[in-house]
Amino acid sequence: MNYILNDNKHPAFFSRHFDGNTKTRLLLDGVTEISWYCPGGSKHCIFQECVSLINLHGDANKHPGQLEFIQRISSVIVVLLPEDPREPEIVESVKRLQEPKIPLIFLFTGVEHAPSSSDNRIAAKNRNDAELKREIVLKVTCALLKQKEVQSLESHIDTAIKSGLIATTESKEVWNGQERAKHLMDILGINGESQRNNDKLLGLKDEYLPLQGDHWKSWSKCDKEVHRLHSRRDISIDQQLTEIVSKKNKIRKGQLAEAQNLNNFMAQFFKYALPRTETSERIAMLNRLKKYLDDAFTGVVAHLQDQYNTTWIDHRRHTAKDDRKVQLADHLQAISEKINSAAFDVHHIIRETGQIYEAICSSGELRAVSGFEVNVLPEFGAEIMMSGRPIELLDGDANHIPLEWISAVLQKLIQNIGDQRVFVISVVGLQSSGKSTLLNALFGLQFAVSAGRCTKGAFMQLVPVHEELRNQLHFDYVLLVDTEGLRSVEADASLTHDNELATFVVGLGDVTIINVMGENTAEIQDFLQICFQAFLRMSSVEIKPCCFLVHQNITETAAKHKTQEGRRQLISKLDEMSKIAAQAEDREVTGFSDIIQFDAETHVFYFKNYFDGDPPMAPPNPSYSQNAQELKTKLLSIAEWQDGCKLPLISEVRTRIQHLWNALMKENFVFHFKNSLHIMVYSKLEEQYGKWSWTLRKFALETQNTLHHKISSSESYDIPTGQFKQDFNSIYQDVKVDVDRYFREELYSDILVQWRDNIDKKLESLIEDLMKETRDNEQELIKMKKKNFSNRTENKII
Predict the structure, then answer these.
(1) Could you tell me the pTM of the whole model?
(2) Terminal-residue alpha carbon distance, the chain
């Protein structure tokens, strides 16, 4: 069976050839092992569908309970017969196996040639392994093709109980939790099974979780605008602030109205999940609810992805000028939006809980929700963290942190476990670089992993430290922060979003793991420079984070030795850019590590490939596990290698989140740039633009003064329009020549080119405004002169 699964490269089943095996099978006699074969979509796969393989150790005649169970659940049974299969006991067993009419394949160990008339007998003696494997797989595949029913392990729990393999069912609390999950699914109107063509599911989140939709996204956008006001001609800063605050309050009132009239689903969820429920019952409900939701939405998402692929193929067949191509592009966008709306998970329900809490708190009154006081909602969030589940820190849909909710949850956590000392470890990196996989390997977690974008926003999870290790490690808990990938294609994320996220994550963690796929560090250099300059500008936040660099998928054994020059250049570049950034902020630093601790020798790790072969049947690489253990040992021994190490209390982490996020909201300049060099080049360009604009403004002022003098000192009421435009155009052309020279000859012209269009438009708009202003001023002066002349004439006549 091991040879069939993966050519014995990574044995799935324990066999007699392993170290420690005994002839009597002291531990394994009667043990039934199960493993899965998952096809990778290639024509070379052994099976084209997911197949479960069950292996019964020992003599099946001596284990009737296990044999009965296998008979009841199997689609096909392969029977390995001894050299003499005619023994009465064996013959009787074979007859019993044939009773349920399950396809049987007999593997004769003592026969070299099977009867040609039989299609279910295979001779195994003195056979070539590859040839024997092909024949077994062929016969099993043919038997499976006749079995149309797809089975699940869950459906066989009752079978296992009847066979005596499971002594008792779940506890009463677990059973109650599962029943409550079923009731919640009934309220949603779905039965928990995959519903491939059920478009009704796409609207469930908007219907039953209304507060986190457009309300929350609009409020988040307004909250950022409050901290990032811009001067406008038509309205003052104070008026802008008043309008935005009024809009925020209006949105909160809309959320409050929804919170006070909870739909049946959220009301029932609170009844089942809030803290007066037994912890085991609540956890069982959440786990089963997550499974039901996953099962229900998996088919819908798969169906939409199939539609997207079909439409995309059709889209590519049409030319750019074809109207049909435009229609298909719109259809692709609509399908993409449907895929995004098909996300409905337990963490969305917890997010809705947080929004209900924030909406009620914004009213200034602690009201009851579905018969519960609102202050029990953070208690539920704290229970989630204490149970070992992740909780959403930064909403990936709205790109915002619900500060009131997170602060309240952490405060309740302090009340439950005390103000313990925590070690905050965060991870950041490009999309699909293996961030969640790394945290899962380091600490045995279950963060979502997959191809593409599997994490949105940021999640935090609390991991307790064993009491015997707390004094040695000098902290009581590890707080892990997993984040979405930077430069995400699916998210269509902007440079600003990525820089904000990276700065927040690096600032929050006592140690931030920067995950890099391969040896190239060009991308991380950019956002590290932005983080550095952002921290320089955040005088209200007292932090000095530390970074570890992890290179993934490095096959070279001597990679650390061979990349010394690359690491030296990395730290040299960071130091150089740090000094440039500090100079721009009127600060003095000696290097990058003055703000963000980073040692190019001891803080850099190289990891082998995670899989030893091609997934999905490839086993984990033992070298990856060894690399992860080395990193984990280094991380947990932070008290030994970091000078003056004093990790924060939970209350200090709570304050850090608040101060860091508020500082990020107020900072809007540096996040728009790729790195510190771009900031420096742009700042110099802005300075130069000030000179160009002053040249034009100065000319306009001089022209206005000249025309004012001519109009005031003569009887003429006409402005020489032709000469007027010609003079302005002449000075504008002179400025444009200077602009061309600057963009062509400046040291960083390759960086400057991205802002050329913007500068040209600003200068063009400025010259038009100055011409209009000059013309309007002189027209007003002429109008006043005519009026004065008319008044003098009337006085003379009188």
Answers:
(1) 0.85
(2) 122
Under 8 Å between Cβ of 134 and 99? no
Query: How would DSSP label each residue in 319-377?
Result: -TT-HHHHHHHHHHHHHHHHHHHT---HHHHHHHHHHHHHHHHHTTS--EETTEETTHH
The pair of structure tokens assigned to 714 is: 């003569």
Please report the pLDDT score of residue 452 as a whole number: 54
* 552 strand-pairing partners: 517
Is the C-alpha dihedral spanning 76, 82, 84, 88 positive or negative? negative
Q: pLDDT tens-digit profile of 392-443?
A: 999 988 889 999 999 999 999 999 999 999 999 999 988 878 888 899 899 9
Tokens found for residue 609: 């490939």
Q: Distance between CA 550 and CA 524 in Å, rounded?
A: 11
Tokens standing for 119? Answer: 């299609």
Q: Among 86, 133, 79, 132, which residue's Cα sits nearest to residue 106? A: 79
Confidence of residue 137 (pLDDT cuts 50, 70, 90): confident
Identify the helix (H) or strand (E) that includes residue 464. Answer: strand 457-464
SS3 (DSSP) at 33: strand
The residue type at 41 = G
Q: Which bin fits 749, alpha (ψ -120 to 50), beta or left (φ > 0)? A: alpha
Cα separation of 204 and 773, whole Å? Answer: 56
DSSP state of 484: P
Measure CA 758 to chain center: 33
pLDDT tens per residue, range 633-649: 999 999 888 888 889 99
Q: How far is 98 from 48, CA to CA, in rounded Å?
A: 27
In whole angstroms, give the CA distance from residue 307 to residue 538. 47
CB 432, CB 517: distance < 8 Å? yes
Return the amino acid letter for 677: L
Q: What is the 3-state secondary structure (H, E, C) of 206-249?
A: HHHCHHHCHHHHHHHHHHHHHHCCCCCCCCCHHHHHHHHHHHHH
**In the predicted structure, residue 681 carries a pLDDT above the cut 80:** yes
